[in-house]
Amino acid sequence: MCIQTTHQKEKPPIHQWFLGMIVASIFSFAYLIIPIYLLSSACCLILRYPTTNASMMYALPMFLSIIIPPLPSTFILRLLKPMLYYFDYEAIYTDDKNVRQAIAGGKNFLFAAQPHGILSFVGMCAAVSKPDDAMKVPTAAASAVLQTPLLKNLMGIFNLVDASAHNLKKILKGGGSVLIYIGGIAELFKSCRAEERLYLKKRKGFIKLALREGVDVVPIYLFGNTSVLSALKHGPLATLSRKLQVSLTWFWGKYYLPIPRDEKILYVVGKPLGLPHIEEPTQEDIDKWHGVYCDEVRKLFELHKERVPMYKHKKLFID
Fold first, then answer.
1. Rounded distance, CA 83 to CA 125, Å?
2. Which of 93, 120, 215, 306 has minimal Cβ neighbours within 10 Å of its Cβ?
3. pTM surpassing 0.85?
């Protein structure tokens, strides 16, 4: 088992902590500000307010973003390193050596991550910690994220790909590996500091896909995703978020602002489940291996929750 940590016996210097807070907050503030900016830009263009030229200038960042595709960047990821110290990030790779050797030998994997949380700061920290890995294994994201101006460019540095079933199948058939968030945006509204709830019982499509393509599944547990931010779970914005599969609801953290709480977070990668290749899996096959995945997720949670203070007394529920 490989353990990677940024943990320090003493708190980091205040300037390093403050810089990490700013870096992390860029993403959370962007998720709130970008939709407002896009809506206001559209209104100004339609109404030509205050003048046609002024409205065009105001909407210029939106137009540029539409033209410029998302660009993965290891350079930018390395600049985000202060975020690791702000969160006191730690990672555990249960079978890292064998998985890396298998990938080098041409085997591909489907990395299944949970929970999603409001923003996956644990996943982002993992990419910042090992940027080269993030470039080799893309992360699947909702098409709404990849099509939203500015947001697609901001999050695109993490090497995102479309999470549609067609695209995932294409990646796996081409011999590539991919990381997916099983619960998706639906899991956002299960985020809670008091208990841990995964949206998983009805999520079996990834198992069916892995069996059909002969790709093994590697479970990943993200401790802290559901506790660093809290979300408003009801109201019109929450309903719109569910329909569009993107976070548009109000959320808060430190000081009741969209600043993530500076709590310890933990990224745990489990062992491959050992899925067989079944070109036409039956429902019984799918249920069997889905059960194996659920059991492994429970094991990862119970085995490692003591390492994260916020999780010591949490119970895991699979909905």
1. 7
2. 306
3. yes
